[in-house]
């Protein structure tokens, strides 16, 4: 289900990052969300500038995780998506 005022794939990044049991590195996020690696980097850069994600370096990989603000926003986004699914 798509919501006309929300871009589906970038929103998928926030929803994927809600699963904190996985160690989300950029290439895994790219594969799981269906975005190209470069587009994933661009979206993550925007999310970082908004204070929604942070990075932690583990060896050669950058691990991406949600900040508290990002967790709140992704929770609200998840509720919004659920609301639209119920209406369909």
Helix content: 55-70%
Mean pLDDT over the full residue set: 88
Q: Given the structure, what is the number of helices?
A: 4
CATH structural architecture: Orthogonal Bundle
Low-confidence stretches: none
Largest sheet properties: 2 strands, antiparallel
Instruction: Spell the H/E element sequence.
Output: HHHEEH
Morphology: globular
Spatial sequence of strands, sheet with the most strands: 1-2
Might you state the CATH topology name?
Arc Repressor Mutant, subunit A
CATH class: Mainly Alpha
Radius of gyration (CA) equals: 13 Å
Query: How many strands appear in the DSSP assignment?
Result: 2
CATH superfamily name?
Answer: Winged helix-like DNA-binding domain superfamily/Winged helix DNA-binding domain
Question: How far apart lie the N and C ends?
Answer: 8 Å
Number of domains: 1
**Structural class by helix and strand composition:** alpha+beta
Strand content bin? 5-15%
Structure, explained:
The structure is a single chain. By secondary structure, the protein is α+β, with helices and mostly antiparallel strands. It has one domain (9-87): Arc Repressor Mutant, subunit A (Orthogonal Bundle). It has helices spanning 8-17, 26-33, 37-49, 68-87; strands at residues 53-58, 61-66. A two-stranded antiparallel sheet has the order 1-2. α1 (8-17) crosses α2, α1 packs across α4 (68-87) and α2 packs across α3 (37-49). The longest helix is centred in the C-terminal third of the chain and has 20 residues, at 68-87. The model has no long low-confidence stretch (mean pLDDT 88).
């Amino acid at each position: 289900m798509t919501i006309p005022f929300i871009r589906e794939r970038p929103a998928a990044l926030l929803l994927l990052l809600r699963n904190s049991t996985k160690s989300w590195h950029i290439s895994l996020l790219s594969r799981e969300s269906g975005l190209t690696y470069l587009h994933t980097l661009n979206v993550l850069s925007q999310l970082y500038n908004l204070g929604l994600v942070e990075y932690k370096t583990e060896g050669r990989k950058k691990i991406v995780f949600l900040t508290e603000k990002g967790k709140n926003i992704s929770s609200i986004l998840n509720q919004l998506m659920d609301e639209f699914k119920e209406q369909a």
